[in-house]
Amino acid sequence: MGRLMLVAIILLCSVSLGHARPIAPLDGLEALRKAFAGITDFTADITQEKRLSLMKRTMTMTGTVRFRKPDLFYLEISSPYASRMVLRDNTLEQVMAGGDRNRMVLPPEQGLKRWFSKIAVPITSVPEGMKVQADVSGPVYTVTIAPQGKGQVRELVITFQEDGTVRRLVIAEQNGDRAVMSFRKVRRNVGLAEKDFRLD
Amino acid sequence: MLIILKQLFRAAVLICAITLFAGCAATTRTALNYRPGALVETLSSPISLSIHATDSSMGGHGYLIFRRPGQARLLILSPFGTTMMEAFVADGRITLVYPGQMTAYSGRLEELPAKGGLQGWRLMGWVMDAEPPGDKSLNGSVERTARQGFKEKLTFENGLVVSKVSPEGDQVYYDKYVVINGVPVATEVDMRNSRDDRVRMTLDEPEVNTPLEDAAFTPRLEGYTVLPLSAVQGL
After folding, report:
1. Is B44 within 8 Å of B63 (Cβ atoms)?
2. Which residues of A touch B201 (CB under 8 A)?
3. Which of A154, B67, B186, B223 could make an SS bond with B26 (beta carbons 3.0 to 4.6 A apart)?
4. Which of B64, B25, B48 minimizes the C-alpha distance to B179?
5. Alpha-carbon distance A21 to A141, whole Å?
6. Is B51 in the A-facing interface, judged by CB distances under 8 Å?
């Protein structure tokens, strides 16, 4: 009886833990594309952790995000870093805790449209200058993209479900800094409108 | 646009320096139990920053470290948590680093182009000319000759400097400060210059007088294109 219980526990554990199975880079990218193909928008609670190489502690911010294809992103950070921002492709508008309002234009390569256009059509080959690794564990995919060369980003890791639910986004920089954005309470295709991306 | 942002960013770094070099007194409504003479030797803190000029603005969250007498590093994060820009100041030199473009600008402070927005750095010596907080009963304003040779107006509250005004009309206000291990540290700093540019910075749970490694103040520029400060314009 005891042995039977042990076997049952081992089986349960192996099922619940799940083992990530490596898949071909192209399959990972295609899984990413397909997952997002069915998404028009989503909302989520987030935790953003920033570990700077010069810090002995981690900056942790919590808040909510809204996203709508192709290029609208809203981020509201709770205290003590209270702020609200909307990124419209590469134009960032921001309201800080004191009510100060800022507007910035980021470099074009940091625009949302550019990134999402890359996964808007079927991917037939791994883009040049990019090293990709991917694995799958049940319905959860993890795709690691490492741009080759001397850019700021050393590695981008996105963990998502096949239904398009994003779980985690990790951006590792060449300087050793690392930002992790974890998503909770993700609600997909909720019909976000323009008014949901206003700061007023 | 980008030029203005860069200039504003420099002003923001200046504010950080002001905060720290000044030993950071701040407006206080009730007297704080600080240690007279206690100085900020080192500081590290997450920050929120908001910068406004007449025709542009920027802001964000980031991190600041400082070591007396003249080393500072200010970092601003993008919304996704990557580093948008950094400034390193040490030994009279400044290096502005833009990881997104893999470009840095470096040189001596006096090599900064004489353009609007850069005047802030010329105040560096003035704002670094700090003194430790003194008599806790000191209130009111005094006018005196700064070491740089011009008249400056300082306002004290409960022994702490709550504002400084330069003859050119640059103003710095210190507010909401806390006492950490006996050392008063401003957690809000507001600077306005004569052209109505404004920089507001908030520190969150700063750590004071903890050891900081030399490497933290040294930019790592492997793979970067490093240009002189004179090239800042036009980017």
Report:
1. yes
2. none
3. B186
4. B25
5. 9
6. yes
- Residues of chain A in contact with residue B90, where contact means CB-CB under 8 angstroms, are none
Identify the residue whose tokens are 């920033």: A50
A20-197: CATH topology is outer membrane lipoprotein receptor (LolB), chain A (2.50.20)
pLDDT digits (tens, 9 = 90+) for B105-141: 999 877 866 554 455 555 555 555 556 667 788 889 9
* Residues from chain A contacting residue B44 (CB–CB below 8 Å): 55
The rounded distance, in Å, linking the Cα atoms of B82 and B77 is 5
pTM score: 0.78
Would you list the domain boundaries of chain B?
A: 2-231
Query: What secondary structure does DSSP assign to B52-92, as a single string?
Result: E-SS-EEEEEEEEEEETTTEEEEEEE-TTSSEEEEEEEETT
Q: What letters, b where the CB count within 10 A reaches 16 and e where it falls short, cover B110-120?
A: eebeeeebbbb
- CA–CA dist B209, B211 (Å, integer): 6
Cis ω on the peptide bond leading into residue A70 (within 30° of 0)?
yes
**A99 in contact with chain B, both atoms CB, cutoff 8 A:** no
Judged by a CB distance cut-off of 8 A, whether residue A91 touches chain B is no
In degrees and rounded to multiples of 5, residue A111 shows phi and psi of -75, 145
